[in-house]
Design brief:
Length: about 600
Amino acid sequence: LAIIIFIVTLFQLSYLPSETLRDDWVSVRLGADQKEYIDAKGVHVVVGHYMGDGTNLNQPNLTDEIINTNNFAPLPGEGKDGMPVVIPPHLSGKMHSLYLINRFNLMASDRIPLNRSLPDVRKKKCLGKYDNVDGLPKTSIIIVFHNEAWSTLLRTVWSVIVRSPRSLLEEIILVDDASTRKFLGKELDDYVSALSVPVRVLRSKERIGLIKARLIGAREAKGQILTFLDAHCECTKGWLEALVTRVAEDRTRIVCPVIDIISDQTFAYVRSFELHWGAFNWDLHFRWYSMSGEELEKRKLDRTQPFRTPAMAGGLFAVDKNYFFEIGAYDDKMEVWGGENLELSFRVWQCGGSVEISPCSHVGHLFRKSSPYSFPGGVTEVLYGNLARVALVWMDEWKDFFFRYSPEADRLRDMQQVRSRIELRKRLNCKSFKWYLDHVWPQHFFPMPNRFFGKVRSIVKNKCLEKPTGKGSLNQPMGVATLTPCSRSKLPPLSQMFVISFKKGLGDEPGSLEGALMTDEAVCMDAPDRDDQNLTPRVKIMACSGQKRQLWRYAPTRKWIEHISTGLCLDLPKDGSDQNGLTLNKCENSSATQSWLFEEVPWR
Ligand code: LR7
Ligand code: MN
């Protein structure tokens, strides 16, 4: 059970984009954790985790027979144009138990034709932009899978065939990572041999995990370009042209599509945001964050330009095959799942390439709230072992920060043999992790030698600033800025740790600070720009925006935390309580409630 709960939180915390509720959806019934909506066209939509969230796993025993049966039975028009599927109420019981097999609504998927239509979700400006595919190299599409459902796997294949220019498609390679489901054997071989595009099924007898499975596919590929997809994707019009064109222009580019959402409940195709980039948090979990304001400004003229991303989600990207192998493909000592996306991102950036997202390429991915398959070796061991390798090889002094706060990874640190990967890094003459943070992701919130890292203490309260537990969009923490009793541990909880730059100008006293007051998950202390007389400004902690309203200044003798845009000082509310959050007031000399201490904590 512990393992299951871990997997569930792992996935919930990871990169599920915020649940998208359209304005025109009307709520018709609110269950415990189930919400149903009727949209403008009268279509039923179910949102929320009403199953598969780990709370109901002790449901009817799924026999091997049920798991091994292929129930694919398409109904014409079902799921058409990416519309949600409605399951008739009398089938609800069966739907719930089938859900548990893959942690998505298998019954819904099995009712949608493999070649269903999808809307063209691209911006108008994309249309025509990548239409000329003459002379472009061909690509091998590589899809690895372990016990995938028939309908999702083959809908992925069909969406590639139906929506890619034939002249760009060398072949489709399916790599079976030791699946045990019967229908993925000969039935699959026979089915794909009749398709109009060459499809090869490569099989691993042993469970090798997605990383080594992709390596098999990559080595076997005949195309000049490799395009990877998860086994439950649906490609939309124009997706491949936009990727291949950019890789062909510059072979050191890794190009990712915008990843849209296929609902695990209804299989609705939901367009996602184009202006999020990929990065990670202090625990090295992949995250989507809003692009910085500066970056957005630059893109105002043309939002269809590909943009650089600090990290890729992992599953969906195109890369030049020779380049992929020149820079070291994947770390073949990584197991099962996880970490390889950051490893590849760091490596490509640090060794002279780039990773970008093309807003003109949209591919849907079926997001799940938990993982359906086993992690041989244990979830924690697998994931944190892989992450330890990432840190050891690529992160220089930031690995110490990671290991200090991640006991799971620290425990596995000494077991990792990374010599050949470190040699690879030397051979390729790759840049430092500091260079990566400074140049690829200047908006990052990691500690740095020129930054303060530690607790922010109120001198009257013996309490410290705390990151809120509420969630905003993109699942980032959000809430009013509050205080909690300061931790006295040598290793304080990360929720009390903040980062802000040292200010080292002429005449600045030592220990002066200035900039955004940031913490994990790209959140910053925020207050309204103008001093509104009627309203005591509430100070919040929310997504970093790069705006002036998030800039603060501190000098150790005065002890004020000044809000730069208003000139006001961070204060406890007048009633002395801090439960409802901190506030801003006119700065007063030697006001105890406006006095703060920045207490550094070592991170290296
Ligand atoms: O042991 C395994 N063997 C496999 O072949 C485990 C998995 N797999 C296959 C699996 O069938 C699937 O096709 O590998 C693929 C990825 O596994 P998922 O779908 O369970 O992973 P995910 O979508 O939850 O995980 C994301 O992170 C992974 C970390 O290792 C991989 O990089 C996935 O490719 C990646 N998925 C995406 O990037 C899709 C978009 C997510 C976002 C945003
Ligand atoms: Mn996936």
